[in-house]
Automatic annotation (TrEMBL):
This is Cell division protein. The keyword Secreted does not apply. Transmembrane segments: none annotated. SUPFAM superfamilies: Bet v1-like. Residues 53-131 form the Coenzyme Q-binding protein COQ10 START domain. One of its GO terms (biological process) is cell division. InterPro entries: COQ10_START, START-like_dom_sf. It comes from the Bacteria. The lineage of its organism: Bacteria, Bacillati, Bacillota, Bacilli, Bacillales. Keywords: Cell cycle, Cell division.
Amino acid sequence: MPVIRTELFIRAPIRRCFDLARSIDIHMESTAKTKERAIAGVTTGLIGLNETVTWEAVHFGVRQKLTSRITELREPFWFVDEMESGAFKRFRHSHEFVERDGGTLMTDSFDYTSPLGLLGKVADVLFLERYMRRLLLERNLYIRQVAERESV
C-alpha cells in the first residue's frame, strides 16, 4: 500500500489554492495529456462535501473510468476524496492547506492499493508508484502556476 506525499509552496492565498484544488475545470486542464474529463456527477465548477465526480481518462493506453467522492471537507484547510469505483482496489487522497510565509503550503497524501494482489504490488515497484507521483506533482505544479498568475 504505497503512500505518495507531496508538498508545494504556493505564493497565493489559502482560499485560492483550496478552491483551485477542488475545481473540476482546473483538474481537466492539468490532466489534458491523459485526456481526463468529468463525465458524471459534478462535471464543472467546485466539488463539495459528499459530491461525486466520474472521470474518464487514458492511462497506459487504456480508457478508464473512476468515480470518487469528497468524504471530508473543512474549508479552506482540508478535503479528502476517496474512490468509489475504478481501477484501484482503493484510494484515499487528502489535500491539506496551511497559511505560511505570505502564501500557502499545499500537502497531498495519496494512499492507495493497487488491484490484482501480488501482481499489483509488482506494478507499484516497477512503474505505477512513479507514474502516480509524477501525475500528482504535475497537477499540483499546474495549480501553483494558475494560483500565482491570478493572485498578482
